[in-house]
Amino acid sequence: MGKASLRNLLAHKGRLALSLLAVVLSAGFVAGTLIFTDTLQSSFEDLFAGTSSDVVVSPAETDAPGSNGQDGSTVATPTVPAATLETVRSTEGIAAASGDVFVDGATIIGSDGEALLGNGPTFGANWEPDERLSALTMVEGAAPVGPGQMAIDKKAAEDGVLGIGDRTSVVTPTGVKDVTVVGIFTFGVNGSLNGATIAAFETPVAQEFLLDGSPVFTSISAAAASGVTQEQAAANVEAAVGPDFKVQTGTEAEDEAAADIKSSLAFFNYFLLAFAFVSVLVGLFLIFNTFAMIVAQRTRELALFRALGASRAQVRRSVLLEALVVGLVGALIGILAGLALAAALRSLFGFIGLEFSGTLVVQPRTVIVALVVGLGATLVASWLPARRAARVAPVAALRDDMVVTTKGLRRRGIGGVVAALISALTLAAGLTAEKVGTGISLVGLSFVLAVVALIVLAPLIAGPVVRVLGSPFRGTFGRIAVANTLRNRRRTALTAAALMIGLALVGAFSTLAISFGDSVDAAVDSTVEADFIVTNANFLPMPTEVGDNLSAVEDMATVSRIRFAPVASFGQNGNLTGVDAATINDVTTLSMTAGSADLTTPGSLLIDTTIATNQGVGVGDTVELTFASGETKPFVVTGVYSPEGFFSGLIISNDDLNAVGTPPLDTVIYAKVSDGVDAASVRPAVDASVANNPTVQVQDLTEFKDTFREQINGLLYGIYLLLALALLIAVLGIVNTLALSVVERTREIGLLRAIGTSRRQLRRMIRIESLVTSVFGAIVGLLLGVFFGQMLVRTLADLGLGVVSTPWLNLVVFLVIAAIVGVLAAAWPAWRASRMDVLQAIATE
User: Fold this and answer.
1) d(Cα 499, Cα 821) in Å, to the nearest integer?
2) Is the pLDDT confidence value at 397 over 60?
3) Rg (CA), the chain
4) CA dist 695 → 541, 601, 771 (Å)
5) What is the Cα–Cα distance from 772 to 482, expressed in whole angstroms?
6) Strands 556-569 and 572-579
7) Taking a C-beta distance cutoff of 8 angstroms, is the pair 830, 766 a contact?
8) Do the Cβ atoms of 670 and 530 come closer than 8 Å?
9) What is the strand order of the sheet 94-100 is part of?
10) Largest CA distance in the chain
11) 9: alpha, beta or left? (left if phi > 0; alpha if psi -120 to 50)
């Protein structure tokens, strides 16, 4: 039986190739995802390797909220006083020590005047010449001296076309500085920064540019004396500096930095693995369909085995052996395909500016998972066909009309309805959940259950839907094509299921994206009354001079500054918004449900309706807020508003933020011209006022909305690219089903040709079958996806997504693409059917 199974595989090379390709794509996407994420993590681990000295002293961690400013919040950078550096230097077992300045927000300007933003942080640092204490290694030029000199990393020099002696600028939290490039360095062991940039200055200059001139450091690096271990040196330093500081060995500091990166990459990894799962699921349908059809076509062959004495177990093992071979070979090839996919992803990220160092990482776990996926998916998909094959009676070998019977659809209908009801209950729970995170999770689970229900019910739905879709094809061969599609509704449903799943996700993401874009447009139109919106690159805080320069523009009536700061309230950390109490109501409109939007009285607080409902707080109540400085102050709720657009959560005045030690750095500035003045006529003067700061962007409301649209579309196109693989597998499923269907109907095709059917008519008939199947899967999938996309938007309403939109144009485009895919998928099976020898086809048993 084993030999017969292997010979059967080799005898049908086309069928084998299509089955292998499904496994290769499924296992390959999983392997490629794991290889890419492992390479990404390894790259960042290598990034931090060798970057820390023997001992690192940094500010102690506290329960107070904090931020490094990358989210647009303005918070004082935690620092270590200069006196602590002297304490570390005098500690036993320490050979040398230096103070470090390392702050995000120093953007280098290239030779073309454009900011080198890249796809990572823009760090500013101090230059430390002692290599034992610094991660920077000078490769060209000299160390920077004085406020007019700067050293930059090698990649920044290449991207900005900057060399030794070139004059340029650097944008820091304290303003724009004109400098000369005097040195070029590399970072760490491998020299890569994975998309980040570093501008280095002499230590006093770094303190002036990055820390407002305070004689403090962000950390202290120390080198152990000869014969003293890192652990011994760290213990001595910890005893010397006391509990107010965190003391780590260099290894611990590097491991912590790598762990933070892994944590931040976790969502990205899960995101990729989710698409890998979709590809595996879609491949599962293809493999199942393939083996189900193979078993149906081999009825007589399997019956002959039974007539010759083969047991049911032997027949079952025969089919599973074929599946095992296909799964094993496909998984092995899939691992190689995964390497190619990971390399392509790395090249794609490199193209957009995020380059990863090192070679591709293939861990044993990746090989094992890919093998399990390839083998597991194939064996699972072939189990039911194998059981069905074992039930073939020996007498079938003596009958021409014997086919494998299938059960009715009653049980399937009951199971599908039960799954649909559970999905509906889960959806209702998600829509009424108090917490947004819980609601999203429940809606996502409901979507998965709905997909399961739809797959189970698809054979029941296929009948009426296919009849409607096939009604335009009124000719004889059109009716035959529709009848062939309905002949085996299970097969049609399985063939369409793969396309259905992919397009359901496409529909959901499209709906979410267009709703988000429309919500932004609506929020800007309804809440913003300014003429211009000013922001900084990467949403980093801006120096106050930007707002000062805007205020000096002729015919500028109002300049209102918006800040974000971390805060602890109601037992959890978050962010709040700071506004200019005197001007905010001139440039924005909040939808108040209680109280007033007036924040001119110190200690006033606005909360949104979500907080008011969840926390049971209203106008007149007192709320304790804890700031990054550790200071806790009471605030009185003076108003409750509906969250919309960029306003949600807690809002206080900028004066109150200043009072708790928050640096006066603006994140967003709203500017409004005088009444009766055309904003377009003032635009040149506005642009000129910020021209000395290349990272600052001035936009009118239309430009601002368009920018958000472009960002949303960019993300959406990336998702479509990942889903394309799942859709490719779905296309292969249609090709495979049609190809096997042609083999199954060889005699029927021969008879049609014998009674006068032309090759062209035959090809048209098969194309119609494919077209109807594809459009069926596309319509059902898109409708499901759009519905759940809208439900997800409703769940996110508390975050400001107030507009639920339907992407009608996208739906039409996707439907047309599905139809084209259906026609193209039928090309090879139709050509093969039309080239059959008529007499041989009729004689086929």
Assistant:
1) 10
2) no
3) 33
4) 11, 34, 51
5) 8
6) antiparallel
7) yes
8) yes
9) 94-100, 219-224, 55-59, 245-249
10) 103
11) alpha
Is the dihedral angle over the CA atoms 646, 652, 657, 660 positive or is it negative? Answer: negative
Closest among 482, 488, 477, 487 to 765, alpha carbons compared: 477
Encode 388-405 in three state secondary structure. HHHCCCHHHHHCCCCCCC
Q: Residue 274 CB: number of other CB atoms within 10 A?
A: 13
The half-sphere exposure of 205 on its side-chain side, counting CA atoms within 13 A, is: 23
Nearest of 308, 363, 321, 307 to residue 338 by alpha carbon: 363
Q: Coil, helix or strand for 407? A: coil
| Residue among 495, 505, 512, 444 at smallest CA distance from 724 | 505
CB 210 within 8 A of CB 106: yes
Query: Strand 696-700 to strand 650-653: parallel, antiparallel, or no bridges (unpaired)?
Result: unpaired
The whole-angstrom distance between residue 84's C-alpha and the CA centroid of its chain comes to 43
Q: How far apart are CA 814 and CA 781, in angstroms?
A: 11
In angstroms, the CA 843 to CA 379 distance is: 34
Q: Extract the tokens encoding 759.
A: 């090759």
Q: In this structure, are residues 81 and 209 in contact, taking their beta carbons and an 8 Å threshold?
A: no
Q: What is the DSSP string of 151-204?
A: EEEHHHHHHTT--TT-EEEEEETTEEEEEEEEEEEEETTT---TT-EEEEE-HH
Q: State the Cα–Cα distance between residues 101 and 106, nearest whole angstrom.
A: 12
Phi-psi region of 287 (alpha: psi -120 to 50; beta: other; left: phi over 0): alpha
Cβ–Cβ under 8 Å, residues 25 and 336 = no
By the 8 A CB rule, do 480 and 765 touch?
yes
Token duo for residue 268: 């990205």
Number of H helices, E strands in the chain: 25, 24
> Residue 812 is inside which H or E element, if any?
helix 808-825
Q: What angle do CA 261, 263, 268 make, to 5 degrees?
A: 90
| Residues 6 or more apart whose Cβ sits within 8 Å of residue 13 | none
User: Which whole-number Å values give the CA distances from 137 to 162, 304, 821, in the listed order?
Assistant: 18, 76, 55
Q: 608: which residues sit within 8 A by CB, 6+ positions away? A: 640, 641, 642, 643, 647, 648, 649
Long-range contacts of 675-679 (CB under 8 A, 24+ apart): 675/557, 677/555, 679/531, 679/532
Residue 151 pLDDT class (50, 70, 90 cuts): very high
> How far, in Å, CA of 106 to CA of 126, rounded?
12
**Encoded tokens for 838:** 């008529």
Separation between Cα atoms, residue 650 and residue 673, nearest integer Å: 28
Contact 639, 595 (CB under 8 A): yes
Alpha carbons 506 and 104: distance in angstroms, whole number = 37
- The CA distance from 687 to 470, in Å, is 60
Q: Give 560-595 pLDDT, tens digit per residue.
A: 999 988 888 888 877 899 999 999 999 998 889 999
**Which of 343-357, 608-622, 790-804, 830-844 comes out lowest in average pLDDT?**
343-357
497, 653 in Cβ contact below 8 A?
Answer: no
Q: What is the pLDDT of residues 495-542, one digit of tens each?
A: 787 788 888 888 888 898 888 888 888 888 888 889 999 998 767 788
Consecutive H or E run containing 533: strand 532-536
Q: How far is CA 30 from the centre of its chain?
A: 16
DSSP class of residue 569?
Answer: E
Residue whose C-alpha is closest to residue 634's, from 599, 602, 665:
602
Please state, as a whole number, how many other Cβ atoms lie within 10 Å of the Cβ of residue 835. Answer: 9
17 contacts 734 by C-beta, under 8 angstroms: no
Task: Note the residue count of the chain.
Answer: 845
Residue pointed to by tokens 């649209």: 709
Span between the terminal Cα atoms of the chain, in Å:
22
Q: What is the pTM of this model?
A: 0.72
Annotate 228-243 with b (16+ C-beta within 10 A) or e (fewer).
Answer: bebebbbebbbebbee
